[in-house]
Amino acid sequence: MSVIYHVSGKPLPGKQKSMLSQFRTGAGIMSRLGSLETRVHNIVMGNAAGNIGLACKFNSFANTMKALADRESDPHWQELMETMRSNSSMELSVRNLLRVASGELDLSAKVHHIRTYSMKRDHLPQALEMFKEIEEIKDENTKVAAIVPSVSADMSLLHALYQNNSLEEAGNAMDEVGMSEAFQKLVIRASQLGTLEKSTITVIA
Known about the structure:
Mean pLDDT: 97
Oligomer: single chain
Largest sheet: 8 strands, antiparallel, barrel
């Protein structure tokens, strides 16, 4: 099982470079404390465009929580917090814990296209079964994962994550797979299980 600690926020005017630098420093600290993979990214289209995010991957909730606990006494983290207090660069809006419910999470993929559904939890098993069908029709350059919240302000969400190594690859996947009859039939079936609330594209910073 993969667990994701995810934070994101909006850079203050003129502070984008400072926010990116602080998130990259935070990513390095989390890696040293046990994160298997990290990803600092710009949200370039869709929901919260212009914001910046940091995702940290772990192999269990226990290891995630241990890293977060150890972080508080880490001198490098304390130094970063002091820098952020004296040189405010962002307004944090998201601090969530999520898990991969289906598929493979690749934080090294340059482009993540996220389609977010809201649905009742008793519909989740049916929705996850549909990811097996997506695996059969996706192209070879796309990795797919289903992500669900474990600690979040909104626990009703299901994130369908499409991962590519370039924006061009992502565009080709949208043309060749996303617009195909087979995929559109899946979209219609998914609409009977939940509501597509938003779509987001992020790119590694």
